[in-house]
Amino acid sequence: MRVLVGGGTGFIGKVLAQLLRGRGHEVTLVSRQPGPGRITWDELAASGLPECDAAVNLAGENILNPLRRWNEAFQKEVLSSRLETTQMLAKAIMKAPQPPQAWVLVTGVGVVLGRGGGAISHMLLPFRLGLGGPIGSGHQFFPWIHIGDLAGILTHALEANHVQGVLNGVAPASATNAEFAQALGTALGRPALIPLPSTVVQAVFGRERAIMLLEGQKVIPRRTLATGYQYAFPELGPALKEVVS
Ligand SMILES: NC(=O)c1ccc[n+]([C@@H]2O[C@H](COP(=O)([O-])OP(=O)(O)OC[C@H]3O[C@@H](n4cnc5c(N)ncnc54)[C@H](OP(=O)(O)O)[C@@H]3O)[C@@H](O)[C@H]2O)c1
C-alpha cells in the first residue's frame, strides 16, 4: 500500500512510518519542510495528491508545549495547524482522479508513551531525581497508550477493510494519575511521592490548558478491541519499563 502521512516527521509519525515500511508499505510524508521521502503542504496544494492508497494526518502544533504561553496566538496556531492541514488533504483527496481507500485522522488519543518525545520526556528528569509524583489530586484518570500500539492501531485501521469509524487510541488498562506516577517511579526504581500542586500546573500551562492534566477522562478502547486489534502493551508497568529501559 502507498501511504501518505501528514505530520509524519513527528514523534508518532516516525514510529508509524517505520512500522508501515517494515510491513512492506511505501510511505510519503507531508511536511512544512522539504526533504527526502516527503512533499511539502505547498506542493500538495499546488500539484495535488500523489498516487496513494491511504492517507493519515498527524500534523499539529503540540498543545501541551510547556514553552508556549496559552494565549490567543498560540490557541489559533494549535487549531489552524490541525484544521488547515486536514482541509488541504481533504481538498487534494476530493480532486484526486483515484482517491485513497482509507483516510485516518488522529485527534483524541491518550498520552502517548514512547522514547525520545511526548509528555513523558518532560516527566523523566524530575522522576529520575526522585522528585516526581502525582499531578494535582492524582485521582483524575490518565488515559495512556504505548507509541507502538498507537502506530499498530493506525496500521491495523489502514490494512483491515472492516475497520471504520472512531477508534479510541488508549490502552485497555486505565489508570489514575497517581497510579501512573507510582508505575513510572517503579519503572525507574525511584520514589514518586512528591505531588505537583494544581497551582503550579495552572501557572505553567494556563488555567484552561491545565484542565487537560488536572481533570482526566476514563476512556475504554471498546471498539478498538472489537476490531480485533491485539495490544503489545495492554498494561502500564511493562509499557513504562520498555520506554525507560
Ligand atoms: N504525543 C501525544 O502524547 C499525543 C497525545 C494525544 C494526541 N496527539 C495528537 O497526535 C498528533 C501527532 O502527535 P505527535 O506527538 O507526533 O506530534 P508532534 O511530533 O508534536 O508533531 C507532528 C508534526 O506536526 C507538524 N506540525 C507541528 N506544528 C505545526 C504547525 N504549526 N503547522 C503545521 N504542521 C505542524 C510537524 O511536522 P513538520 O515540522 O514536518 O511540518 C510535526 O512533526 C497530533 O495531532 C497530536 O495532537 C498526540
TrEMBL record:
A Pfam family that the UniProt record links to this protein: DUF1731
Domain DUF1731, residue spans: 197-242
InterPro entries documented for this protein: DUF1731, Epimerase_deHydtase, NAD(P)-bd_dom_sf
Gene3D superfamilies: NAD(P)-binding Rossmann-like Domain (3.40.50.720)
Domain of life, source organism: Eukaryota
SUPFAM superfamilies named among the record's database cross-references: NAD(P)-binding Rossmann-fold domains
Domain NAD-dependent epimerase/dehydratase: 3-38
Protein name: Epimerase family protein SDR39U1 isoform X2
Organism of derivation: Carlito syrichta (Philippine tarsier)
Gene that specifies this protein: SDR39U1
